Amino acid sequence: MSRPDDPTGVEFRLRNVRAGIALSVFCCSYLLVYCAITWSHPHRDVLAGIATYSVVSSLLMLRLPLDGVLRHPRWREAFFMGWSCLLIIFVTVIVLLDGGVSSPAAAVYFLPLVFAALSYPVKSMIAVAVVDVVGYVFAAVAIGGVSPTTVGFVALTLVCASWMCAWQARIHERHREELSRVSRADALTGALNRRGFDERFTAELSRAERGGSALGLILIDLDDFKGTNDRLGHAAGDEQLRWAVTALTATLRPSDAVGRLGGDEFAVLVPGSGPAETTALAARLHAVLAEGAPASVGAASYPADGLDADALHQVADLDLYAVKHGRTKRRTPAGERELSWATTLARAVDERMASRHEHSLAVARYATLIGERLGFEEEALAELRLAAILHDVGKIAVPEAVLRKPEPLTAAERALVERHAAAGGDMVARIDGLEELAPWVRHSHEHVDGTGYPDGLAGKDIPLEARILSIADAFDAITSERPYSVALPVDEALAELRRCAGTQFDAACVELLCTALASDGAGAVDDVVGLV
User: Fold this and answer.
1) Mean pLDDT score, 439-459
2) Residue 64 to residues 271, 376, 397, 436, Cα–Cα distance (Å)
3) Which of 2, 380, 433, 480 has a 20 to 30 Å separation from 128 between CA atoms?
4) Closest listed residue to residue 504, CA positions, set 446, 434, 426
5) Considering the domain boundaries, does residue 318 fall inside one?
């Protein structure tokens, strides 16, 4: 079995490789001895050459960076299957050169079965068995000289040995699964232990990032647990811990996860849960636990409160600490926090689009230029800037192959891309405090003549902020290198915006951007480049 900190079983498989190499060297060595004893028989020079080559090849394998191969499940199984098949071919060649299956070398057909039983999954073990039996029968038919009864008996013996080896492989597989489960579970409560919870947390964060969904984290700290142990004894404390996990599990969905992080500290993961849902669930869990294990509860949600595990833990800890000590919840000021995670999320989207600069920040700057000339107050400009940073966030759910495609998109691919505006609006709408920005993001690809998406709004039905975002987005796209287009000079880009004013873009906002860039000169665009 691999070490507890080796979840992929790499060390376990590496030990098997070393054992297999040692076995191969030993077999080839006594093959050389066999050749020396029977040197008067045919083909001994060829057999000796094959054995020597195999010894050298096996020893060279020890110098290969096998740990990298073994960390990838597909490569790992392909490597082991290829190795076993080569070994069976090697045995078959030796048997053929030594006169057929009457050769004592035919006994080596049993070795690949034993090795596969010790380290292969059941399916791979069965595949090796099939190749092994086929190799023996082929050698018997190719040379002949042995009665069909003998061949059939030995082949059936190989099948029986294969069945026993497959059964043993299944037992090993179940043992490894059980040990893996136990190593990630808390023995007292059955909840995930810290290691298991951290692995699940990492996986759920990755899934939320790829799918553009939310993820809730709830931290729970039982109140006066030490007092319970002191007054009633540790048995009562253990029972309270078990009851708490049972109560939490009964309240949560099957897709949620409960982990015990320490003595009386628990955590809950809630996939798909935004700030409002996570806060509501935290209150419900607090009420449920009050019946038998009163606790303080803190909550945080991805992406509103942070984009990594540490940030989410910190926010939830602050909430929990505030509740436990009867203080007002202390968090980073909303504007700074939202701008921070929004920028990070937008940067991830820009990277998926293979953008050579930070497109979302550039759009925010151009949108701000228009907003300033419309007389927006500072608070309104801050909201417009945040919406601009988030305007493409829905593209996090669009495959990179489509986003980076240099050729024209197919109708299906274009439909897939166009869904990002609605998806982005829905994502922003689920974040407390940003609901007002959601329509701006959703309608940032509408056209004033009604030919845009996702809802085909026209004219004044499109929010002013969305019309601003549309122009800022288009201008940066035209003046930037993209997989499907080259960058145009500023004057040509402005000419293109003016050409589409009144049909795709709001004409008044187009003129405001042109005026802003003209009055500030080329430095306005340079400033944007400098910012990103």
Assistant:
1) 93
2) 41, 64, 39, 58
3) 2
4) 446
5) yes
Q: Tell me the CATH number at 348.
A: 1.10.3210.10
Cis peptide preceding 121, ω within 30 of 0: no
User: Crossing angle of helices 523-531/359-373, nearest 10°?
Assistant: 140
300 strand-pairing partners = 217
Could you report the per-residue pLDDT of 237-264, keeping only the tens digit for each? Answer: 888 888 988 999 898 888 898 888 888 8
Mapped onto helix, strand or coil, the DSSP state of residue 3 is coil
Residue pLDDT, tens place only, 355-390: 555 788 889 899 999 999 999 988 888 889 889 888
Residue 286 lies in a domain: yes
Helical ranges in 353-463 per DSSP H: 359-373, 378-389, 400-403, 411-418, 420-429, 438-442
Q: How do strand 295-302 and strand 257-260 relate by DSSP bridges?
A: unpaired
Among 162, 183, 204, identify where a domain stops. 183
Final residue of a domain: which of 295, 330, 365?
330
Terminal-residue alpha carbon distance, the chain: 49
* Residue pLDDT, tens place only, 282-332: 888 888 888 888 888 888 888 777 778 888 888 888 778 766 655 444 444
How many Å apart are CA 88 and CA 133, to the nearest integer? 9
439, 357, 431, 455: which is closest to 391 by C-alpha? 439
Other CB atoms within 10 A of residue 165 CB: 25
- Any idea which residue has 């035919």 for tokens? 106
Taking residue 350's Cβ as centre, other Cβ atoms within 10 Å add up to 20
Q: Which residue, chain included where needed, has tokens 């049972």? A: 246
Does the pTM surpass 0.90? The reply is no
Q: Are residues 307 and 324 in the same domain?
A: yes
Rounded distance between C-alpha atoms, residue 380 and residue 383, angstroms: 5
What is the C-alpha separation between 126 and 161, in angstroms, rounded? 11
* 235 Cβ contact list (under 8 Å, min separation 6): none
| C-alpha gyration radius of the chain | 33
